Amino acid sequence: MPITMGVKIEGLNTLHEKMKKWPALQKKHVRKGIGKVGQQMVREWKISVSGPRGPRKVAPRSGDMRRRISARFVPGHYAAVDVGMGVPYGPVHEFGFDGIVNVRAHTREGSSVRAHSRHMRMPKRPHMRPAVRATQKRMPTILRNQYRDFLRELNRIRRPD
Fold first, then answer.
1. DSSP label of 57
2. Contact in structure between 33 and 154 (CB atoms under 8 Å)
3. Calpha distance 130→141 (Å, rounded)
4. pLDDT tens track for 10-42
5. Reduced to 3 states, what is the DSSP secondary structure of residue 54?
6. Model confidence, pTM
7. Domain locations along the chain
8. Which runs of E-coded beta strand occur in the chain?
9. Greatest Cα pair distance in the chain
10. At a CB cut-off of 8 Å and minimum separation 6, what does 120 contact?
């Protein structure tokens, strides 16, 4: 069963309800701005799971975690982007783990190893939370620039050349 992580933005549903009454051009630009925020979040997140191993870095082995980070618009919602990762071990790296895990039967160097359980301790290596904080800092600028683009397009429509 996959474990999911998410960030809740207060007021998002209120914004969605208000946007239902907005003109199509305004909705388009807000949605574009929200999409850019999602893309920025993906970039920051990929940076935090890449690079050299450190005390709080996820060590890239196969690159699967990095490849599986993506953003998509939430269907039926004007102002929501779902940024996620399709690997079940992501939360273990994010929050750490200290407990018992079951190990399946397998072979090691030609000899069979029976199924057993063992204690596992994984220190937390946050990768999503630093990306969220970095994106939060850039979000006002991203949205402000998109609003400026909206006003430019609106002025072009009102004053045809």
1. S
2. no
3. 18
4. 777 787 788 888 888 888 888 888 888 888 888
5. coil
6. 0.69
7. 12-158
8. 69-73, 81-85, 97-103, 106-108, 111-113, 116-122
9. 79
10. 97, 98, 99, 100, 101
